[in-house]
Amino acid sequence: AQRVTQPEKLLSVFKGAPVELKCNYSYSGSPELFWYVQYSRQRLQLLLRHISRESIKGFTADLNKGETSFHLKKPFAQEEDSAMYYCALSDNNAGNMLTFGGGTRLMVKP
Amino acid sequence: GAVVSQHPSWVICKSGTSVKIECRSLDFQATTMFWYRQFPKQSLMLMATSNEGSKATYEQGVEKDKFLINHASLTLSTLTVTSAHPEDSSFYICSARVGWSRDEQYFGPGTRLTVT
Asked: Which of residues 55-84 of A touch B (CB under 8 A)?
């Protein structure tokens, strides 16, 4: 069965510092990985997906199949980046259902 | 575009009663809708996958007779928590997807259920 692990429940950085939110997965097939973000009092929304290979709000994430990781990175954190971040994996063998990691709360201090 | 709504946003009910939560895709037709449950400070756990016009597929450990899901149209899915108990108190979130492929899931704002 697929599994997504986010080892850090809380990550606190100062504004302008680099950010890396870790995500590791286990999946027997060819995974599709996502990062979702939930700002305070807002609904969950897609931040980026690995197949798009794009940068959203300065965030990037590279799928590393050798290390089974999909870490989310941003070179310079902004206060508005403070939110809950969830890594998720899509199971192509089960109707593309999403399996979520436990989430990491990012706090960017001024 | 791609907005998903849920109603109600919060509900308090007495133990033993049933509660219905609606999930609607407002500006698109959703072939598939998903229901998640989120306990405080925990991640989202998929409860069931609902395809329009067919029976929902429940995840292991989720009682299908307790959590009744109806996906009667391409824009509406309902989750009914029957004979609710305090341990059913949680945040219930739905999401909707257009097709069968790797389309994005659009999430509703969630419904907070408190059973007293």
From this structure: none
